[in-house]
Design a protein that fits this description.
six-stranded parallel sheet; alpha/beta
């Protein structure tokens, strides 16, 4: 296990690590303040592609966390970065919200349903059967299928709701084409984040609350991994996985004096 004083850059998940049901988790504000005060390079990562960094920063501020826009990295931004590297100035048919459409537009993509190079599926609260049908037909005509993240459900005040992975499965069933998924647990998400802040795997840590996304992807990217027990994964769950985190904390409050 690496000593945290040797960690120069930090990546952290958001839900279950910094916030829970729109409330800051104890210690989260202090940890972020410590990073900012000591000029640590850090990014808050989320698979949610709905919000732009500005919108997300405002939502976090309402939860009691002051996170600068430039310290937010979403699956939408990672997807836009990936696609601009693959095909600069390409064309995409997009199912998603402002976070995704804005990221792709700013990356130089033309958003269109006419001869697109890619069909890009992201998170949205208003999935349209018409849009899904268009996506299916475009993929069958040769457009490449991209999804921002694999999450099959997402939280809501009334309970779980279908998310990107569930809709991707429907499109896959109709086309026999699996999407390339950019977000966690694809280490691509972490590598793009590290490139954003000029970080190196040997001196970067990833904090997460899920063994099956945050920890496994961080491990595969060569990062020091910190599992916090304030979200999905509980201590009794750890032994059910064939890998272990580098460090375990009850919450991010346990890291404040280590950074």
């Amino acid at each position: 296990m690496r000593e945290n004083e040797h960690i120069e850059c930090w990546l952290t998940d958001m839900d279950g690590v910094l916030v829970h049901e729109n409330h800051a988790i104890p210690g989260a504000a202090e940890l972020i303040e410590r990073w900012v005060a000591t000029s640590k390079r850090f990014l808050v990562l989320t698979n949610n592609s709905i919000y732009t960094p500005r919108d997300l920063a405002a939502r976090l501020l309402a939860s009691g966390l002051e996170v600068p826009e430039e310290n937010l990295w979403t699956s939408a931004l990672a997807t836009a970065q990936f696609l601009s590297d693959q095909l600069p100035g390409g064309r995409a048919f997009v199912i998603g919200e402002a976070g995704l459409t804005t990221a792709l537009h700013e990356a130089g993509f033309v958003l269109t349903d006419t001869n697109p190079d890619y069909v890009v599926l992201g998170e949205t609260r208003t999935y349209s059967f018409e849009a899904i049908t268009t996506a299916v037909r475009l993929i069958l005509e040769g457009a490449r299928f991209i999804a921002t993240n694999p999450d099959v459900t997402g939280p809501s005040k009334d309970g779980p709701m279908p998310a990107t992975g569930a809709v991707a499965a429907m499109i896959t069933a109709a086309t026999s084409r699996d999407p390339y998924v950019v977000g966690k647990p694809n280490p691509m998400m972490f590598r793009s984040a590290m490139n954003r802040i000029d970080a190196h795997s040997e001196t970067t840590a990833m904090i997460g609350d899920r063994m099956d996304t945050d920890i496994v992807a961080g491990m595969e990217a060569g990062l020091h991994t910190v599992l916090v027990l304030s979200g999905i994964t509980q201590r009794r769950d750890i032994d059910t996985f064939p890998f272990r985190p580098g460090q375990i904390c009850d919450s991010v409050a346990g890291l404040i004096d280590q950074v």
